[in-house]
Predict the 3D structure of the following.
Amino acid sequence: MKEEVNSNGEMDGTFLEGLRTNPFLVKPNYFDNLHDQILSNVKLDDIKKEGVFKTPENYFQTLEEQVLSQVVLPENGSSIFKVPDQYFESLENKILASVEEPTQKNNIRSIFSRNLIRYAAAILIMISTGLALYFSQQKTNIDTEIAKIPDQEIIDYLNMYSDSNDIQLILENTNTDDLSSLENHINHL
């Protein structure tokens, strides 16, 4: 699966590969008139800032009279709106005739393809299994590791890297019972 990463670190084009057509369409001749449209919008913004639209003086005081003078009412008092004969009797049939049964079922398309979901699930399982195995092998008990070191290597190490101050510090912090058991242990070696 080919993946491209844009400058923001996001993936491009991964969900568009499964589509049959390009969903991003531009109107014909869109770019031909774009410059003129942008300039006209800039001019309109300038006009909005200037506030050139003002109402004449006493406009709202005389508004009601002006509106009523332009309204033409029938003089005999009858309604100018009429309903055709048998309109409501035939209305239901006209509506039902104009409504058609849907013949085609709409296809639902998901954003992610099923293969992508399967691959993601497989990768997730592999990563979690690998991490579980890695961390389970990393747990080692320090006591068991020290117990694996032969006693003679420990004695040689202490003889080589210890000095007289270390021995005095050890003797100050041990009991006489501990010393006798240690002496018996060393003698058995």
Notes: The longest strand covers residues 4-5. The chain is about 55% helix and 0% strand. The two ends are 66 Å apart (CA to CA).
